[in-house]
Amino acid sequence: MPINYEPIDPTTDVATTRTLLHEVIPLTGTIVSGTYGTFPNDDNIKNYSHGMFQSVYDYPYLSSSANHIFDLTAGYDESSPLSSSLNPSLRAKKINMYNQFSQVLLGYTGSTNEVRKFESDLTLDGEGAMKEVVFVNLSRLLTKDEIKKGSVSITLGTASWANPFAGTKVFTDSEASATQGTLNTVGGDYGILSSSAAGVGGVVFYQAGVMVLTSSIWAGTTDFFSQSTGTGSFDQQLVSGSISGSADAFRHRMQNLQFNNTTEINSTVYFCRMPHNKYNYSSNPTYLNSGQVRVKNGNRQNPPISYVTTIGLYNSQNELLAVAKLSEPLRKDPTNELTLRVRLDY
Amino acid sequence: MSLKKFGHSDVIRNAMRAYPHNTFFIYSSSVYYDHRPIESGSFSDDILSASGGISLFEYNVDKVGTTTFISQSSGDPRNVVDPAGLNPPIVPYVVKGTSKNYLKSTPRTRTLTEGPDRSYQITASGPMQEVFDDYSRVEGGSHLTGSSYVMSASITRELMTTAGNTGSIANVSRPAYRHYYGLRNTLNFYGTRSPHYLVSFSDTETGTWNKDEQDLNLISIPKIFYGSRIKHGSMSLKFYITGTLVGELKDEKYNGELIQVGPVGSVGSGSVAGVALYEEGFAILTGSWDLTSGAAYDFGGGLATGSWKYFAAGANDGNNVSTSASFDVSFKGHTETQVLTMYAHARRGEVNYSNNPTFLEFGQTKTFLSSSKLYIENDNQTIKNTVSSSYSGQTADFERQVYISRVGIYDEDKKLIGIATLSNPILKKEAQDLSFKLKMDI
Fold first, then answer.
1. Domain coordinates of chain A in residue numbers?
2. ipTM of this complex > 0.95?
């Protein structure tokens, strides 16, 4: 227990900071298709009996080491031409899925509280609606507090089913940044995923961690999917196939996805000051040898030296609250003064 | 929105004490934690890079390759990376600003100056990043990356031959086994528990020893496995030769002495072979009697008869050990978790309305009047009747009812600080009392 304490002045010795910690998240297409098992029945892909969405893991999901990385689903708006197709499969589920996402992310509009539609711009004026879409719902484990604006890039294969990456489109949110290029909605900020060659491919919601990709990406792809029943376009898949079938076909065409996430770390920094005439002595039992200060090497004239290893933070009742350890002992003697920054993250 | 205040008996704080059981099995220079196999994946032989232990983050699973930032000189304003390999790892980074925050980077070597007159220089290695070396050198806005979460913990064994030996580094005499020197004071401190802790001791009944002159076998157990301390008396060390138990140590007296308790009648049975430092997470073994009846095995460094100083050979000590020997280390930890329990009550006649838009009939006019000066909501909106009828084609009589799906917790400033979500929404009718028990481990 210390004999005396060095008071901390809240006005000069305490500062609060906010740091943004980021992570680079590279997800290559190999792990979502074909690496773990045989496509489409990969061991890291989980389908559910409700058939509403498909979960993708970074390792076979039966292992306790596997992490859930994102969910895939697809849907269309009620006003989409696909909705009035003959013999549509799971029509209600696909419309519900579209509405569910749009309600949560975009909210409602008009006096009758109509559910908004996803748009290919930042205006939400009803123009440029994306009515047939694929949803990539990224895990909170990967997105943390939010996706970093301006860091998203997705590469999708648009060529034939047999060789999908013979032709690719790369969509990025390069127009988005922390200060511009996004629109705030009830579901948080969203930015546009676009390509100079292929135009707008969808939108990304940064706080929600959801990517919405439009069917027009594969507008010229006649064999978007290939199953035992035959091949067909994206729209045909969305009309007559299951949601998990659409997710399978999308995985088959996903070559790369990368983004950076953000975690906000709030910190309090305590500046612990050691004046030249203090903390030059230690109460450690090893500081003395036969009653003499060991570091004086037998010469009383030598100045005292201590090696600082630990800082204790006490409350006003002198109760120890926290201990900060130095990575290596710091030499302290009457000829020097030390100021140590003790940072507390929370 | 109305809020409900917790009553004085609705918030309970207590501590939950647990004794997590841990087992390490060491065989053929590999460590197996809790009998788990080392998982291999499509890209890596050990998917968590935590052979025989636990991965701190369990984040980069089965990753291989590198993730590097594309040079800023390429002109791309985005934080794009150049993932090389089929499954490159997730890498953390901070952008250099004014906070002086940075991440510990890859291991490096640097020179430290020490000694009373600062005349000695030694070389230190490890994951360190000096402010002067990296942080101040790079330009503002640069990416300061950290290691890619490959942090793991496992037990380590260290054989210290004549533990008190000194060696010469930079012409200065220094302890050859600094881990032992770091524990000498601690060993003497626990001498009140048992004299077997003491570094030096002499007694006609107990025996005479000086640990400085003995060969010590140090088993180090990281704190992440046991919490605040290892449970006293829970440690068990088993020594097997070709699958047959040749010795077992236990702390039968609960005073830290590791006494050979088995097999019955074995050489050294009843003798103290070492001590356990429960608070610090170490076992120090000194027993040198022959456990293998003269048969010699390779415990690393040549053939030798089995004794406790070779226990756990191959546990992250760099030795290639005979496949005849195997070892088992088991113990219980001691953890205390602070638990906050809150009871949120939904009394009868309360919590019967929802702000969810679907709580009202669809298609109603929401706004009665809206002008530049007035905004009046329609106060004649109809609540949707969600009461299920028992009969087909018949609508049940209206009742006020809601489905509760979440409980929000607010602080004294009415700021939302937590949300408890139910696994399934619960129906609450007007005449019902409901209580939700919320638990949070801190």
1. 21-262, 275-345
2. no
Phi-psi region of B331 (alpha: psi -120 to 50; beta: other; left: phi over 0): beta
Kindly give the pairing relationship between strand A54-57 and strand A68-76. antiparallel
pLDDT, one tens digit per residue, over B219-247 is 999 999 999 999 999 999 999 999 999 99
B120-124 — which CB contacts under 8 Å span 24+ positions? B120/B170, B120/B172, B121/B170, B122/B169, B122/B170, B124/A328
Measured N-to-C along each axis, helices A243-252 and A91-105 cross at an angle, to the nearest 10 degrees, of 70
- Helices vs strands, H then E, count in chain B: 1, 31
The Cα of A239 is separated from the nearest Cα of chain B by a number of Å equal to: 27
Under DSSP, is residue A185 helix (H, G, I), strand (E, B) or coil? Answer: strand
Contact A112 B61 (CB under 8 A): no
> Distance between CA B67 and CA B74 in Å, rounded?
17
Residue with the larger pLDDT of the pair A286 and B15: B15
Confidence of residue B87 (pLDDT cuts 50, 70, 90): confident
Q: Would you tell me which residues 391-420 of chain B have a C-beta closer than 8 angstroms to some C-beta of chain A?
A: none
Handedness of CA A197, A201, A203, A209 (dihedral sign): negative
How is residue A117 written in tokens? 């539609």
- Cα A241 from Cα A255, distance rounded (Å): 22
Q: Distance between CA atoms of B258 and B238, rounded to whole angstroms?
A: 11
Note whether B77 contacts A19, CB cutoff 8 Å: no
User: According to the model, what pLDDT value does residue A240 have?
Assistant: 92
Name residue, tokens 């694929």: A134
Q: How far is CA B66 from CA A67, B69, B88, B171, in A?
A: 20, 10, 5, 41
Distance CA B242, CA B293 (A): 13
CA–CA distance, B321 with B157 (Å, rounded to integer): 13
Collapsing DSSP to helix, strand or coil, A336 comes out as coil
pTM: 0.83
pLDDT band at residue B51 using 50, 70 and 90 as cut-offs:
confident
Q: In this prediction, what percent of chain B has a pLDDT beyond 90?
A: 61
Total count of residues recorded for chain B: 442
Q: Which residue of B has its CA nearest to A113?
A: B363
Distances (CA, A) of B220 to B49, B50, B55, B225, B331: 20, 16, 17, 11, 13
d(CA A39, CA A45): 9
Residue A256 identity (one-letter amino acid): N
Q: CA-to-CA distance for A252 and A221, rounded, in angstroms?
A: 13
Exposure class string for A262-275: b at 16+ Cβ within 10 A, else e = beebebebbebbbe
H helix or E strand, kind and range, residue B31: strand B30-33
Whole-number Å distance between alpha carbons of B316 and B329: 14
Distance in angstroms (rounded) separating the CA atoms of residues A162 and A145: 38
pLDDT digits 0-9 by tens, B108-162: 566 666 555 555 666 666 555 454 455 666 777 777 788 778 788 999 999 999 9
Q: Do B159 and B78 contact (CB within 8 A), yes or no?
A: no
SS3 A141: helix
Cα atoms in the Cβ-side hemisphere of radius 13 Å centred on B3 = 12
Within 13 Å and on the Cβ side, how many CA atoms surround B274?
A: 28
Give the pLDDT score at B184: 94
User: How far is residue B309's CA from residue A60's CA, in Å, rounded to a whole number?
Assistant: 41
Contact list in B for residue A25 (CB cut-off 8 A) is: 90
Decide if pLDDT at A282 tops 90. Answer: no
Q: Which of B34, B60, B62 to mutate to test the interface with A (most CBs of A within 10 A)?
A: B62
